[in-house]
Structure formats: C-alpha cells, structure tokens
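note to self: dont lose this again. the chain is below, predicted strucutre after it. 153 aa total, dont forget to put it in the shared folder this time
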Amino acid sequence: MINGKPVTQSTIGEVVAWQETMRSSNRQAAGKYQFMNVARAAKLAGLSNNDLFDGPNQERMMTAYTQKNAESLRQLGLEATPENLSMSHAVGPEGTKKLLDAQKAGRGSDNAAELLFRNIQGPNRRQAAFKTNPQLNTSIDNTIARLSKKVRS
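---
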C-alpha cells in the first residue's frame, strides 16, 4: 500500500517518492518484479511519473530492463542467456561478469560478497552493502547457482 491504495493503483511518481522514503530501511523493492529503482526502469520503458504502476506497465518496465541488461551483457562479452540475465537482474551486468570470470578462474569457493563489494568506498557503505545483501555472503559457486535459477518464465 502506498498512500492508502494498492501499489498497482499508484502512479510511478508515487512509487518513486515512496522508494525515496524507504531507502534507509532497505525495504524499497516494489511491484511484481521487485524493482529497486522504479524511476530507472520507468525511464527505460519510456514511461512518465504520471503513468500507473499497474501490471501492464510493470511488464513494459521489465521488458525494457531485460533488454538493457542483455545489451550490457553482450557489451561485456557475455551471452544474454536466461541464466546470465537472471544474475544481471540481481547483481548487474558487471557483477555478473565478475562472478563468472572468478568462477572460470577457479575461484568459485571465494566469497561472492567480498568480490562484488571490494571497491565500495567507506567502511559504513561497505558494511551496509553486506547487511543489505546477506544472500551474497556465500561462495561464488553457490551465488551463481542460486541466481541463475531465478529465470523469468
């Protein structure tokens, strides 16, 4: 519920404003596809803040987001397979490349969170990344196996 109404009856602008107020609690994912950044997904889909965050628009946003991730994966030299796209939705195309490159180099038992968050500046920001993403605090092999199973049907 946003402003007393179901999220699908809210405008994209209302959802974006709600996400801004929820950022500090790390509970801002919204919609069927749990968008962490509705503003970015809406922009990719050519939608405005006045458009509804309804089912058809969420599908448009996911399609646009998937196309952008597929393009980014190809630019990084990776195939846009359903498994790679699933991973890229969770950790971004660059994160997907880091994980796959590390696994290919025989570092599958290394910690995925350590690899992905290595370059985050500032101890508080790095700690926040670990706290917000506890599912990544496991081996690279386990992370790849789990993330690549969440393929959109």
